[in-house]
Amino acid sequence: MAHWPLLSILIWLPIIGAGAVLAFGRDPRVARWLSVLIAVVTLVASIPLYLGYDAISGGMQFIESHAWIDALKVTYGLGVDGISVALIVLTTFTSVLVLIGSWGPINKRVSQYMAAMLALEGMLIGIFAATDALLFYVFFEAMLIPMFIIIGVWGGPRRVYATLKFFIYTFFGSIFMLIALIYLHMKTGEFSLAAFAAAPLSTTEQAWLFFAFLAGFAIKVPMWPVHTWLPDAHVEAPTGGSVILAAIMLKVGGYGFIRFSLPITPDASQEFAWVIIAMSLIAIVYIGYVALVQEDMKKLIAYSSVAHMAFVTLGIFIALALVREHSNIDAARLGMQGAMVQMISHGFVSGAMFTCIGVLYDRLHTRQIDEYGGVLNVMPWFGGFFILFSMANCGLPGTSGFVGEFMVILASFQSSPFIALVAAFTLVIGAAYTLWLVKRVIFGEVTNPKVAKFKDLDAREWIVLGSFAVAVLAIGIYPKPLTDLMDSSVLQIVNALMLSKA
Amino acid sequence: MMIPFNPADLITILPELVLLGTTCAILLIDLFIKPSQRNITHWLSIAAIALTSFFVWRGAPELGQVVTAFNGMFKHDGISVVLKQFVLLTSGLSLFYARNYMRDRKLLIGEFYLLILFATIGMMLLVSAGSLITAYLGLELLALSSYALVALNRDSAISAEAAIKYFVLGALASGLLLYGMSMIYGATGTLDLVAISGLIGQVEHPGWLAIGLVFIVSGVAFKLGAAPFHMWLPDVYHGAPTPVTVFIGSAPKIAAFGLLYRLLEDGLGPMSEHWTLMLAILSVFSLAVGNVFAIAQSNLKRLLAYSTISHIGFMLLGFVGASPAGYSAAMFYIISYTMTATVAFGIIALLARAGFECEEIDDFKGLNQRSPWYAGIMAISMFSLAGIPPLFGFFAKLLVLNAAIDAGFLWLAIVAIIFAIIGLYYYLRVVKVMYFDPAADDAPVPLPSDLPMRWVISLNGLALIVLGIAWGPLIDWCNRAFGV
Q1: Does A182 sit within 8 Å of B413, measured CB to CB?
Q2: Tell me, what DSSP letter sits at residue B270?
Q3: Which of A73, A348, B2, B129 has its CA 20 to 30 A from that of A368?
Q4: B129 φ, ψ (degrees, to nearest 5)
Q5: CB atoms within 10 A of CB B29
């Protein structure tokens, strides 16, 4: 297998498959089966990536490098470390579930929907595998197109507003990053991330570059106060779009911080780490409160995503502070590791939560919390799943949500007990808004006569939610394979943080 | 002074002679055929362009060599080869996109083809200009043909208005240009661009040169449609029959790039510190006017006209460094822009039919339900114009931004991207209308039976993806032309 360009296969199989679905998918059944087949093959192809990755030595593996554009020394450079492998497997896994989950709700222009999803999958894998900054940027921007179409065509009533806001907002952030990349290209003469990381940069340059990257990635994560596109996009997106958005696309922001901000501008990142940490803490507390008052289930989970993703940025930048100010490598490693586990866990949990909301929406065609009530009485299986994922969302031990948050809080404690205290506040507020949601939707008496007629999960929905449940529990109970996979890569990143570039 | 005639010069201008000869032959043939046989003219014109392209390829000078003819009046080098090939390509494309539309409107007359062919000869001359006179001759041949083309639909008031506007303002621009040229001639005593360049440091009255430069830049900016000299552009694009808009929106922009390069770099290169700043200011104006005004448009042709202005602003970013790499980036940009604009205008021509112009943005409502393929092609061209990777337009933007930053114009690059964000909105609006809005009726769009047109426009659209993924050879070609 080592001779196969595995990463290229993972990227291009779904993208070319998208073309095939468009070409042959005039019959919706063909489109559905073909797209799921392609996604499953991609998932299977990502297994050798996980198995073949040598986690002990870490570093970039499965490297592919071809000259793309000689004039600018752009390469088609791919490679993965433990972090990328975890995110790629998350992507291939979630994509299968999303495609299966879309069988029922998506009835118009099925082939276009499935094709957009597959193209999105390929581009996301491309983002996580690119070692060339321009290639990264190309995938980073190109994925806006299918998402724009997905929200705009199959979304809710205010879909046009939401999708335009989503596109322009994220484009706004990333185009500043493009200027930063061109500037770095002028400095180094190439576009490879390794060269960027090795380039000496003055503190002023680093500060500017840092903020350019921040504009791109903070909007993607999204961090408070540039998160406002996310609730709109989530509410209007179809279920599958929301799942991909929450489970994978938000991770691109966190991944970008690790791949760009930390290695390229370590000194500026240290200088401005307090900004990120402050923004993360505000998001954890303030957005938590905002989530509490939401009437719309999707909006609630969207805000909860913002709060949870703040743990990722907190973990990443607390690691930096720990290395630089306390020389505490072990704690830094813990923080970074926690951020990564939180990313993967949030991918599963938020994906599952949005799928659950989609299941309810398909039955009642509303997402207003007060329209529901007592769903457990008519949908026992569904209720069970919903409660499980809600527990994971509040970070109950034994679920994946606990692991990452706990590690990040533990790491922050070694930097400042105050930060840890504020971060730990999420356990309270997260539990408040999640459990209150469960109480209002799942428990209680059936008040709405339409809810009384609900049918429990069908086989297709069962497979999707069951798969998410397995993943959530597996990481919660035994996270070691995941942490082992990423450990040496995290260590390398943390060690690299010690070196100043100025 | 007697200029000796050298028969070898004729070999150098062989492509132009071939096109001139075939054009004259088509002129004669067209006289003798019935209107129902206009297809003969159509295919002969396309064949003439293809044949010329072949001779340009055959006669291309060796790498880095410059072949001159007629005592330096005519210049054939790597740059003119690239520009001529793309002038011919885009002219050919506009012929493909024209036949059906013009026939539906009873405008499919021989003059249409001949005017386009003569304009093409003018453009080929223009990009090979070695002296001020050749540049002016080529420009006027192009301009006069274009005025007539815009007025082709003589019963239409809006066309006539556009043609008058175009003519008056175009004549003004030519006047400015000519006036500037006379200043330069007065200061240096020569018309030869290379000689002018050599004399600039030692003229008696540098003030005349400066005034001449201002007039030349204004004149060329007029032709390019750079703000604040852009007033004619939206009206002309809107008023002209759509296939004529395809034509004047594409090939002449490439030629205008050639004019700008020949006059400013070949002729006034030593004064670059003055004109780079002028171009930077023109660029900012164009980006602002083009992007902001486009938002308010409801007519797609007008929208694309304003978008042209903004793209000219982007293209000028490549000039601000006055470096070969920058020119190469600008050339890549103008090629990318014209290739994309032909698709967008071509789709407007494709969807129009007898008695129905598909040029309001609302006419595109729900196109994805009615014709997914052409909606997709149009969406590709919109995303490419907006500069979204992996499409052609993104890499063009990347290159000119790179050139501007290399030249130390970081502020200009930031201004440009801010306007690019604003510009994104109206491109997305077109996609939104096609994909998200419901169609008035779900019946498939009646498409013309002109299969060659449909094939060519599809290939043109797909080329935007292919050239986005494999843009290496094209930028290498541009770089070689400028010796980068």
Answers
A1: yes
A2: G
A3: A348
A4: -65, 130
A5: 15
Q: Which candidate, B254, B252, B391, places its Cα nearest to that of B331?
A: B254
Interior angle at CA A311, CA A305 and CA A316, nearest 5: 130
Closest-CA residue to B250 (of B381, B358, B362): B381
Distance separating alpha carbons of residues B246 and B237, to the nearest angstrom:
9
Give B327: exposed, middle or buried? Use CB within 10 Å, 0-12, 13-18, 19+: buried
Contacts of A236 in chain B (CB under 8 A): none
- Establish how many alpha carbons lie within 13 A of residue B373's alpha carbon, considering only the half-sphere containing its beta carbon: 13
Q: Searching chain B, which residue's CA lies closest to the CA of residue A154?
A: B436
The answer to whether the bond into B35 is cis (omega within 30° of 0) is no
- Minimal CA–CA distance to A283: which of A323, A250, A261? A250
- CA of B327, closest CA in chain A: separation in Å? 14
What residue ranges in A341-487 does DSSP mark as E strands?
none
Contact yes or no for B102/B108 (Cβ under 8 A) = yes
The torsion defined by the Cα of B53, B56, B62 and B67, in degrees rounded to 10, comes to: -160
For tokens 């008058």, name the residue: B164
Residue A80 is given by DSSP the state E
Interchain contact A164–B (C-beta under 8 A): yes
Angle between helices A297-326 and A400-415 (to 10 degrees): 40
C-beta atoms of A163 and B436 within 8 A? yes
User: Which residue type does B330 have?
Assistant: A
| Residue B25 CA to its chain's centroid (Å) | 26
Q: Does A502 touch chain B (CB under 8 A)?
A: no
What's the whole-model pTM score?
Answer: 0.92
pLDDT at B1: 55
Report in angstroms the alpha-carbon separations of B447 from A30, B101, B346, B361. 27, 11, 13, 18
DSSP class of residue B128 equals T
- From residue B481, alpha-carbon distances to B66, B82, B219 in Å are 10, 7, 26
The DSSP element (H or E) to which A78 belongs, if any, is: strand A74-80
Q: How far apart are CA A318 and CA A284, in angstroms?
A: 15
Give the residue on B whose Cα is nearest the Cα of A159.
Answer: B436
Name the token pair of B318: 């490549």
- Name the residue among B369, B406, B421 with its Cβ closest to that of A171: B421
User: Do A353 and A299 form a contact (C-beta atoms < 8 A)?
Assistant: no
Which residues does residue A67 pair with via DSSP β-bridges, in sequence order? Answer: A75
d(CA A117, CA A156): 18
Q: CA B385 to CA B464: how far, in whole Å?
A: 10
**Buried-state track B364-397, b at ≥16 Cβ within 10 A, e below 16:** bbbbbbbbbebbbbbbbbbbbbbbbbbbbbbbbb
Residues A291-316: tens digit of each pLDDT: 999 888 899 999 999 999 998 999 99
Stretch (H or E) spanning B372? helix B372-386
In Å, how far from its chain's centre is CA A261?
18
User: Does residue B444 have a cis bond before it (omega within 30 degrees)?
Assistant: no
Chain-wide mean pLDDT for chain A? 88
Q: Are the Cβ atoms of A179 and B425 closer than 8 angstroms?
A: no
Task: For residue B424, give the nearest of A72, A168, A179 by CB distance.
Answer: A168
pLDDT digits (tens, 9 = 90+) for A326-366: 888 888 888 899 999 999 999 999 999 999 998 888 888 88
The answer to whether residues B379 and A22 touch, using CB atoms and an 8 Å cutoff, is no
Do A298 and A342 touch, CB atoms closer than 8 A?
no
Q: A80 — phi, psi (to 5°)?
A: -130, 145
HSE-CB at B267 with a 13 A cutoff on CA atoms is: 34
Confidence of residue A500 (pLDDT cuts 50, 70, 90): confident
User: Can you name the residues that pair with A368 across neighbouring β-strands?
Assistant: A296
ipTM over 0.85? The verdict is: yes
User: Which member of B401, B421, B436 has the closest CB to residue A153?
Assistant: B436
Residue at A107: amino acid letter = N
